[in-house]
Write a structure and sequence with these properties.
- The protein is mainly α and about 140 residues long.
- Helices cover about 70% and strands about 0% of the residues.
- It has four helices and no strands.
- Helix 1 packs antiparallel against helix 2 and helix 2 crosses helix 3.
- It starts with 13 loop residues before the first helix and ends in a 9-residue tail after the last helix.
- The relative contact order is 0.17.
- The mean pLDDT is about 80.
């Protein structure tokens, strides 16, 4: 039963667990953005606007854009420690992409562009952590 005027003490791990849930949600948003950018790129390639040789760069750019946008949202939702939150979002995005690749294909090799995708996701997440950090306001004297 709640009593008026008294706050219930939170469990010490609940803040950490909430932050991890927000990072996971940011990773799902990053995956959705990545897939939308890839869909737009596939439409541009099939329309003849882009050449098929641009697909490698498009995949890398879509990972960076997805990790950046998902990381910015996760940093905003968590509100503290922006760089680890952004990098965590990029890691979640990479793991989701790797899991989807393993489900759709028999094997997923890091030698076939996996390292490039991991670096793209990490760079996008790190960029989100750097851009999402808020500067401390100076106190007026």
């Amino acid at each position: 039963m709640k009593q008026k005027g008294k706050r219930q003490a939170e469990h010490p791990a609940s803040g950490w667990l909430n932050a991890m849930c927000e990072v996971l949600k940011g990773g799902v948003v990053a995956l959705a953005v990545t897939l939308l950018v890839l869909l737009a790129g596939a439409c541009l390639i099939s329309a003849g606007i882009l050449s098929e040789s641009a697909m490698g760069g498009l995949v890398t750019a879509s990972c960076v854009i997805g990790a950046l946008l998902g990381g910015l949202l996760a940093v905003r939702w968590v509100g503290s420690k922006p760089l680890p939150v952004g990098l965590g979002t990029g890691a979640i995005l990479f793991l989701l992409l790797l899991s989807i690749g393993l489900l759709l294909y028999d094997e997923a090799s890091l030698a076939q562009g996996g390292v490039r995708l991991a670096l793209a996701c990490a760079c996008g997440g790190a960029l989100a952590g750097v851009l999402g950090s808020r500067k401390k306001k100076r106190k007026k004297k």
